[in-house]
Design brief:
This is Acetylglutamate kinase. Its EC number is 2.7.2.8. Pathway: Amino-acid biosynthesis. It is an enzyme of class 2 (transferase). By secondary structure, the chain is α/β, with parallel strands linked by helices. It has a single domain, classed as Carbamate kinase (3-Layer(aba) Sandwich), CATH 3.40.1160. Helix content is about 35%, strand content about 25%. The strands form five sheets. An eight-stranded mixed sheet has the order 7-10-4-3-13-15-16-14, with helices on both faces. Strands 1-2 form a two-stranded antiparallel ribbon. A hairpin with a 2-residue loop joins strand 5 and strand 6. Helix 4 packs across helix 5 and helix 7 packs parallel to helix 9. The radius of gyration is 21 Å and the shape is globular.
């Protein structure tokens, strides 16, 4: 794309400079050599089981280049809420976050789960920094408006502080991000971890060659939910819409894949859905 800059000399003359940035060698070199970054999103079940978590942290530590880890923690939040006598309410797999539940998820996501992962990475000589969206304003969101369902204190991401995150990453600090955001008015908000991962990957793609890997308990997106080996190796947007119509893809996999396609369309180089224990295998479902 060409950009024109004009200025007047006297009353009548005008000089036009045309800059086609693709003709500038240093620009081409920068665009072709974005440093590699891998962003892993790990679900609560994996993050909360000691053996699974240890294996994941071993594999994550072995990833070359820059990296970021985003985690969930819903199972622990449900367990601790129960111990505190707080009822956990879910609609279509999504948590209703009332005022008391918000306190629980803030403690669990931003405290217990986040710091357990951060400590585990430090033990593996990874200079990790545990963060929520409120820390250094890295992820700001707006409270989800009430439509058919009032989800309570749930936030939809509106801004990622890309300059701060990129600065941390370039200093070889590994962000470990909890799925908690804030609205800039002093309120914490519970935010879907898949969305946090997708929005963060999209923002970072301005500076890095980003691979986004969603880790969960299956080998990938399954054609047959009763057959763990029926992995669909790749899915296009057209495939996605057809599989929804056919009932192959349903429930929580729909928003996960929607986040994946949004990331690809926003400039993320690669999105993979796979087992947490298979992040180095090259398998899983690739979003294309």
């Amino acid at each position: 794309k060409k950009e024109r800059f004009r200025w007047k000399r006297g009353k009548s003359s005008c000089r036009t400079i045309v800059r086609d940035f693709t003709d500038i060698p240093i620009w081409n070199k920068f665009m072709q050599t974005k440093p590699k970054l891998t962003l892993i999103k790990v679900g609560g079940k994996i993050a909360e089981e000691e053996s699974s978590l240890n294996r994941l942290l071993d594999d994550f530590s072995a990833i070359e280049g820059y990296k970021v880890l985003v985690h969930g923690g819903g199972r622990s939040a449900t367990k601790i809420a129960s111990q505190l006598g707080i009822e956990s309410r879910m609609i279509d797999g999504r948590r209703i976050t009332d005022a008391e539940t918000l306190k629980v998820v803030t403690m669990v996501y931003g405290g217990l789960v986040n710091k357990t992962i951060t400590a585990g990475l430090q033990a593996r000589s990874i200079n990790a920094l545990g963060l929520t969206g409120a820390d250094m304003d890295i992820i700001r969101s707006v409270k989800r408006p009430v439509k058919e369902v009032d989800y309570g204190f749930v936030g939809d991401v509106s801004k990622v502080n890309i300059s701060f995150l990129a600065e941390l990453i370039r200093k070889d600090i590994v962000p470990v991000v909890a799925p908690l955001t804030h609205d800039g008015k002093g309120n914490m908000l519970n935010t879907n971890a898949d969305t946090v991962a997708g929005e963060t990957a999209k923002a970072l793609s301005a500076f890095f060659d980003v691979t986004l890997i969603y880790c969960f308990e299956k080998k990938g997106v399954l054609r047959d939910s009763t057959n763990d080996d029926s992995v669909i190796p790749q899915i296009t947007r057209a495939d996605f819409e057809r599989y929804i119509t056919e009932g192959v893809i349903q429930g929580g996999m729909i928003p996960k894949l929607q986040n994946a396609f949004d990331a690809i369309e926003a400039g993320v180089s690669e999105v993979i859905i796979t087992l947490a224990s298979a992040i180095h295998s090259g398998g899983g479902t690739h979003i294309v």
